[in-house]
Amino acid sequence: MLILLFSFFLLTGFNSANQLVISNIETTIIKAENILRYDIKLKNTGTTQIKSEFDYPGHHVYGLEVVIRPNEKLATKMEMDNSSKYKKMISMGGGSDGLIDPGNEGSFNIEYKIKEGTDIKDIEKLAFDSTLIILDGVKIVKEFPLKKINEN
Q1: d(CA 116, CA 139)
Q2: How far apart are the C-alpha atoms of 114 and 111, rounded to whole Å?
Q3: DSSP string covering 43-54, please?
Q4: How far apart are CA 95 and CA 21, in angstroms?
Q5: Contact, 111 vs 123, CB < 8 A?
Q6: Whole-number Å distance between alpha carbons of 18 and 126
Q7: Within 13 A of 80's CA, how many CA atoms are on the CB side?
Q8: What is d(CA 148, CA 25) in angstroms, rounded to the nearest whole number?
């Protein structure tokens, strides 16, 4: 049974998460559309390509995905998806390179809807009151608390 579980982990596990580091993260507020945008650069510090290992019966693998999970203070200022059991802000779009070659950076971006009437200065202060989550399919492969990154 243990061998079966170990084999299952190798088939479904994301083996490159320890190779990922945030090399840059910037936020932009698009006032005209009431959007908070994150532009993220992730660096592959390893010797193997980082790409999605997610397997499913469909034909269009979308690669790695990044999402931002807000902490309580940021969540009160953002439009939230109340239909999910997860704490999720309403996504207004995003994109990525999908994979990262060894020694290189991959670019990711994601945009979220700010609540109407929210003071933009509050969002500027709270944007890093959150956690960056890297997903491979439905599996969380790594989390980065952004508050710690912003303090550096």
Answers
A1: 32
A2: 10
A3: EE-SSS-EE---
A4: 18
A5: no
A6: 27
A7: 16
A8: 12
Note the pLDDT tens digit of each residue in 101-110.
999 999 999 9
How far is the C-alpha of 136 from the C-alpha of 63, rounded, in Å? 7
Distances 150 to 5, 8, 107 between C-alpha atoms, Å: 38, 37, 19
Give the gyration radius of the chain's Cα atoms. 17
Alpha carbons 59 and 29: distance in angstroms, whole number? 35
Rounded Cα gap, residues 149 and 25, in angstroms: 9
Q: Is the per-residue pLDDT at 92 higher than 60?
A: yes
- 13's CB contacts (< 8 A; 6+ apart) are 53
Return the amino acid letter for 34.
Answer: N
- Between CA 32 and CA 44 the distance in angstroms is 35
Amino acid, single-letter form, for residue 111: E
Higher model confidence: residue 12 or residue 70? 70
Reported residue count of the chain is 152
- The pTM of this model reads 0.83
Higher pLDDT, 78 or 95: 78
**pLDDT for res 15:** 61
pLDDT score of 63: 73
Above 60 in pLDDT, residue 33? yes
